[in-house]
Each structure stands twice: as C-alpha cells, then as structure tokens.
Specification:
Structural class: alpha+beta
Distance between the termini: 11 Å
Number of helices: 11
Number of strands: 13
Oligomer: single chain
Strand order of the largest sheet: 2-3-4-5-6-1-7-12-11-10-9
Order of helices and strands: EHEEEEEHHEHEEEEHEHHEHHHH
C-alpha cells in the first residue's frame, strides 16, 4: 500500500567532512556523499547520496530521504504491496540507512492500490472532489489519468499499464488501474479523528495501517461521479438536485450564490446516489475494497 515516503532524521554527530564543508565526495556510514554547491556563492549547500532509487540529502544536521519504498523493495509499484512486505522492507532499509529508520520523522507519504481493470471507464465518470475538478495526467501526448490537487493532499487515478510502458519501457499483458492518495502527515494528525503518523514506526502499527487504508477508500468515495439514475422515478426536486450536482461549473457558482440552500440540495443528492444503477461503478468499488483487504496481510 505504501509508495512514496518523505522522512527526515536529525544527526547528533556529524562527520568532520560536513563540519569542515569539504568540497570533495567522501565516505560516511558506508555511503558515498557528494557535495551540492550553491549556484550563486559556489559554497557547499548540502551533500547527497542514494540507495538504489532512494534519494538522501544531508543539509545542516538533517538527513532527508524520499522516494518510493515499494519500488526500492520490489522494483515496481504495479504489484500488490502488503503489510507483511512493508514490515520486511523497512527492516531491510533500517540495516542500510545511516540512521535508525523507525525513529525518523515522516512528513509526507503516498498510499495506493492496484486493480486489474481498464482505466478509462473508471475515470470517465469522475467529476470533482471537494469542489475541485480533476487535472488530466498526460504522457506521450495522451491522457492516461486524472489528478485532484487539494491543500493538504492529492488524489489520482491512472492507467498503470500505460504509465509503465511509457516510463519504464515494460509491457504488461493486462490492464491495470492504480488509485493513490498523497498526503502530508499534518493532515492526518491535526484533526478530530487523528491517525497519528509521526515517525516511520507508526507505519507498521497495524491499527494505523488499517486507518490509512480506510483513509484511501474514503477519498475514492468522496469523488463525485456521473450517476446513472432512472429519471422516471424522481420528483422534480430530485431531478433539479441531480442536474445541479452533475454540472460542476454551475454547482460551484450555486454554492457561492445560494449557500443557504446548498446543504439541503446536497442531502437530496446524497440520497439519490444510493439509487444509482451504474453496475460498473459498483464493481470498481468492490474491486478496490478487495485489493485493499489483501494488502492488510
């Protein structure tokens, strides 16, 4: 389930090369560190190294580490990445990084799941998320996904088969759809139902892992989707609510001009969604839930 992680660790005892601002590469903790220079002053600004695809940067007395944990451990992120594999991956990583990985602070993470489905029929009905319309994800002059940009998190869904073929030159023999949530941990911690993700150790807390899985699915549920509802069964009031919420530009302006009645319209629309007979949307929802369930082991 975990993909990109951004973590940082405070170094208590810096190597002398850093203290002296050495301008040549040096070995420390089994890794080769290369200086990064300020473009204007030409002075050493930081040092960098890598562990396969993981990027490490030492600036001041802080080591920053980021990139895909799943790709580092498995070599890809188009397969299932389960809880037990996460535990093994972090254990292996702890033996390689120049600090106790479990004590490192985590300030950003991405979680995602894969299902074997064509992406386009899943993405076409997506209208908005919390009032934000999706931005197309483009590659090789083709739209292959949709992404929502919000203040504290991003949500995206895309054709994983196409992305792997385009970016990695790997041809997969089945259609794969990936759904991801990228989120700053402050959004998980400073709210009423806090999950409490502060250090890497929290990522292997099984209860918190389950809550993050629920968080991922809740974001999918909140995506406004084009509904298939039998109009003959609706009252005029219900038809008006359906038409309003299926047109995002009108809905946005309506919320501004008629805020006092927006809440009632939303209640009517939420009831209507339960009448939706879109079997494909229902199928995708179950596929995502099943895939997520498999990551818990």
């Amino acid at each position: 389930m975990y993909d990109t992680l951004k973590i940082k660790h405070q170094v208590k005892q810096l190597p002398k090369e850093v203290i002296e601002q050495q301008e040549k590469p040096f070995l420390w903790k089994g890794l080769k560190w290369t200086p990064i220079f300020n473009k204007k002053t030409r002075q050493v600004n930081a040092y960098e190294t890598s562990v396969n695809n993981l990027d490490l940067r030492l600036k001041g007395n802080t080591i920053f580490c980021n990139n895909s944990l799943q790709k580092w451990y498995m070599g890809n992120n188009y397969e299932l990445f389960s809880y037990s594999q996460v535990v093994k991956a972090l254990g292996k990583l702890d033996g390689i990084l120049p600090f106790n990985v479990y004590d490192a602070n985590i300030h950003y993470l991405a979680v995602g799941i894969i299902i074997e489905e064509e992406a386009k029929p899943i993405l076409d009905p997506w209208l908005s998320l919390n009032g934000k319309q999706p931005i197309p994800m483009l590659g090789a002059n083709k739209q292959y996904g949709k992404k929502f940009y919000l203040t504290d998190y991003k949500v995206k869904g895309y054709d994983k088969t196409f992305e792997v073929k385009t970016h990695d030159r790997i041809k997969l023999n089945k259609p794969l759809f990936r759904f991801e949530l990228e989120i700053y941990t402050r959004n998980l911690n400073k709210r009423k139902n806090s999950i409490g993700i502060y250090t890497v150790k929290d990522l292997i807390d099984k209860a918190k892992y389950q809550m993050l899985a629920n968080e991922l699915m809740s974001k999918y549920y909140k995506i406004e989707k084009q509904q298939s509802i039998p109009l003959s069964k609706l009252t005029n009031k219900e038809k008006e609510a359906l038409a309003l919420f299926q047109n995002q530009e009108i809905l946005k302006q309506y919320k501004i001009d008629h805020f006092e009645t927006y809440g009632n319209r939303r209640k009517v629309y939420n009831k209507l969604k339960k009448l939706s007979n879109n079997k494909h949307l229902a199928h995708v929802k179950e596929q995502l839930k099943t895939s997520l369930k498999h990551t818990l082991f």
